[in-house]
Design goal:
The protein is of the alpha/beta class and 158 residues long. Helix content is 27%, strand content 17%. It is built from four helices and five strands; from the N terminus they run H-E-E-H-E-H-E-H-E. It has a five-stranded mixed β-sheet with strand order 2-1-3-4-5, with helices on both faces. A hairpin with a 5-residue loop joins strand 1 (32-36) and strand 2. The relative contact order is 0.18.
Length: 158
């Protein structure tokens, strides 16, 4: 009989978010998100990428300036997970697992859809105005924010 300890729900859902991030073509920051309901069922997933139907060779993945900046084109993982949901009302009361702390624009979408908790793995932009605004918005809306504490699965890429 195995003595292996099963992973926790947090580890399971953050693992899905991490695995989803591997779909991103962003050369610098791959982000994944997983939205789950109170019954531990996955409602939606997403990763940071270009909008559907966009020829990615026609836009930049660089941090450049003006029209050569990826920030003007990329949909964030959380936003994609929200948009990928078949029924927006299904997000009310859900938990969002995300590999990178949400920006202020994604925080607005999180609040508007009724997501009640955000579990994040990393907050590398915590000192920026954008992230401070995001934290402020989430607190004002009563959305619980929690740093992920748990094992990070290693996924071998071939």
């Amino acid at each position: 009989m195995s003595t292996r300890t099963p992973i926790s729900w947090d580890e399971y859902f953050m693992g899905i978010a991490i695995f989803s991030s591997l779909r991103s073509k962003d050369p610098n920051t791959q982000v994944g998100a997983c939205i789950v309901d109170k019954d531990h069922k996955v409602v939606s997933i997403g990763y940071n990428g270009m909008p559907r139907g966009i020829d990615e060779s026609q836009v930049s993945w660089e941090k450049g300036e003006g029209l050569d900046s990826k920030y003007l084109y990329v949909c964030h993982a959380e936003f994609n997970a929200i948009l990928n949901t078949r029924n927006g009302s299904a997000l009310d009361g859900c938990t969002l697992y995300v590999t990178l702390f949400p920006c202020n624009e994604c925080a607005k979408a999180i609040i508007q859809t009724g997501i009640k908790e955000v579990v994040y793995a990393e907050n590398k932009y915590e000192d920026t105005t954008m992230t401070k605004a995001s934290i402020h918005l989430l607190h004002l809306a009563g959305v619980k924010i929690r740093k992920y504490i748990g094992r990070i699965p290693h996924i071998e890429m071939v």
